């Protein structure tokens, strides 16, 4: 069965997976949530080849979950942002984060990669947190977050390695 035939199924789970059912799409969404909007920033943090990233971003744009915004005319350069449809995936990413915190070998005392606090309630968003029953849908626009020292170091190492591999100075 081809990936396109999955997306044509009558099953809404299969159709959703046709749009976001690979790790790269969700990692790209993570980067957009974290404020990385440029191609090279996303590539450095995901480790994707430029061809794969370009292909995936075009597909995500066709699916209406990201949009391109030009920031340079010469040469033409674009930044990528979540659309309203893409922001609705924030809830999925939040639940995936919680599942990972519970089931992917993180100890109870391990520092999470991001310390995330819900602005409205002031509560720490941990593996057991759920959005309030009332009000608008959850998005990461509703939180304050701070990256842990360990995750910041991991990301800086990826960034530096990416730049060094391309002969760019920091």
What would you note in describing this structure?
The protein is of the alpha+beta class. The chain has 2 domains: 1-83, Winged helix-like DNA-binding domain superfamily/Winged helix DNA-binding domain (Arc Repressor Mutant, subunit A); 89-170, no CATH class. Helix content is 48%, strand content 15%. It contains 8 helices and 4 strands, in the order H-H-H-H-H-E-E-H-H-E-E-H. A hairpin with a 2-residue loop joins strand 1 and strand 2 (76-82).
Can you tag this structure with a few keywords?
single chain; Arc Repressor Mutant, subunit A; 2 domains; two-stranded antiparallel ribbon; 4 strands; 15% strand
- Number of helices in the DSSP assignment: 8
CATH topology name of the largest domain: Arc Repressor Mutant, subunit A
- Fraction in beta strands: 5-15%
Q: Work out the number of β strands.
A: 4
Secondary structural class: alpha+beta
Element string (H = helix, E = strand) = HHHHHEEHHEEH
């Amino acid at each position: 069965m081809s990936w396109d035939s999955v997306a044509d199924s009558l099953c809404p789970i299969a159709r959703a997976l046709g749009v976001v059912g690979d790790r790269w799409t969700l990692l790209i969404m993570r980067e957009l949530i974290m404020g990385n909007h440029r191609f090279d920033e996303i590539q450095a943090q995901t480790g994707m080849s430029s061809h794969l990233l370009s292909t995936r971003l075009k597909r995500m744009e066709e699916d209406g979950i990201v949009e391109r915004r030009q920031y340079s005319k010469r040469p033409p350069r674009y930044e990528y942002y979540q659309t309203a449809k893409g922001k609705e995936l924030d809830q999925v990413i939040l639940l995936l984060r919680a599942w990972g915190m519970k089931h992917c070998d993180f100890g109870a005392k391990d520092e999470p990669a991001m310390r995330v606090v819900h602005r409205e309630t002031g509560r720490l968003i941990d593996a057991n947190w759920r959005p309030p029953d009332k009000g608008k849908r959850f998005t990461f626009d509703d939180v304050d977050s701070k990256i842990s020292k360990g995750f910041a170091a991991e990301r800086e190492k990826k960034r530096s390695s990416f730049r060094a591999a391309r002969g760019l100075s920091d």
